[in-house]
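Task: complex structure prediction.
Instruction: return structure tokens for all chains below.
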Amino acid sequence: MRFSLVVIAALVALVTAAPPKWHQLTGYTFEQYVADYRKPHMKGSDEYAMREKLFNARLAEVMAFNAQPASYKKGINHLSDWTDVERKRLNGRIPDTKAQLTSAAFEVSAPAGFQAPLSVDYTKSYPPILTAVKDQGQCGSCWAHAATESIESQFAIKSEGELFVLSQQQITSCTPNPDQCGGTGGCAGATAELAFDYVKSAGGITEEWMYSYTSYFGDSGVCSWNSTLQTPFVNVTGYARATRNNDSAVAASLTLNGPQAISVDASHWFEYESGVYNGCNYSNNISMDHAVQLVGYGHDAALNLDYWLVRNSWSASFGEEGFIRLIRDNECGTNVDWITGGGGCIGENNTVWACGQCGILYDVVYPLVA
Ligand SMILES: *[C@@H]1O[C@H](CO)[C@@H](O)[C@H](O)[C@H]1NC(C)=O
Ligand SMILES: *[C@@H]1O[C@H](CO)[C@@H](O)[C@H](O)[C@H]1NC(C)=O
Ligand SMILES: *[C@@H]1O[C@H](CO)[C@@H](O)[C@H](O)[C@H]1NC(C)=O
Ligand SMILES: *[C@@H]1O[C@H](CO)[C@@H](O)[C@H](O)[C@H]1NC(C)=O
Ligand SMILES: *[C@@H]1O[C@H](CO)[C@@H](O)[C@H](O)[C@H]1NC(C)=O
Ligand SMILES: *[C@@H]1O[C@H](CO)[C@@H](O)[C@H](O)[C@H]1NC(C)=O
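Output:
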């Protein structure tokens, strides 16, 4: 009897230690939030007051949203007290156009007669082909994360189970971006395609433990990769692209070739907690500003909705253990970028037509791993 009470007490402690989910937010305070998410803000400081105000406004918005019927729930996470400027820094990725249209090694379309399976879920692969969910921090290195994750997955597939954690920092600090595609480089944004080109020309990417991530607070760092000391571990020979805006090509490439690096409009994702997201509004312009990894698709029976399964790099506190499901629809919209007012690479007209929820079908690539 005494034993089971101890066990119950331990379980209660575990349960109450977890931050509240969307249905547990009534009466949730900033003070408790600071403790739950180990925030450094000092009570009584101006910063504390500023963040408390932000938190309270977002909590109210989340609760108001959840009171309405919707296919997804909003929640509180580690981003709930970040300013809009800090949140925007998470992004930094816009669609590549001219320069990169031609540099894909080949285009992937659905082979004749191809029957896509009912669902694909690379989070359940055995042996595993996805490393743990990453945290880019306050650095617009989403593109470096999407690229690194995709190289990790391709290497694991090719080697039949050797899953290694590779260096996002090498890509963040060392990838040149002279045409300012997707931003001005490093923590200020680039594209997964540029990262693949870089790894190809550098002669490989090293492991995370040899060149560890230091850009969490937004410093891109100076490239300090030394191939003698930080052994290149995986080579990339190029990348392949699924036919743009073509749902069946994307499903086929995902099924046949593994996880894909993709571009999306994530400008309203911050509060997503669970369910099938449909918050990208096609009446507005799409603002594709984020790079992530596409790892599956399926059908949610309870909601009766088809979805794409996407791995984000905003830590496991975001969404469904770090993942988000986007509704698999066939709507399209015009992407007009917010970074340069329409330029994917500097000086280009990159007003593009992008399809799928949040533009998910527009820019779908995977690295060719040697
Ligand atoms: C790389 O490291 C090796 C071994 O320590 C050293 O000899 C070489 O000079 C370094 N290269 C650069 C470019 O720093
Ligand atoms: C990558 O390719 C380069 C050039 O072909 C080669 O020297 C190097 O050994 C390769 N590295 C790996 C890890 O395969
Ligand atoms: C996708 O590509 C195939 C050819 O591979 C084509 O038949 C189909 O119409 C395309 N779908 C869309 C939505 O463009
Ligand atoms: C979508 O955006 C349009 C134009 O800004 C707006 O009128 C509409 O209310 C929005 N719809 C939703 C569901 O947010
Ligand atoms: C979409 O972008 C265009 C070009 O920047 C702009 O003129 C238009 O007002 C935008 N539409 C909406 C609904 O924001
Ligand atoms: C930019 O490209 C879009 C889509 O191709 C086109 O509709 C638009 O007219 C172009 N704008 C300019 C200024 O060339």
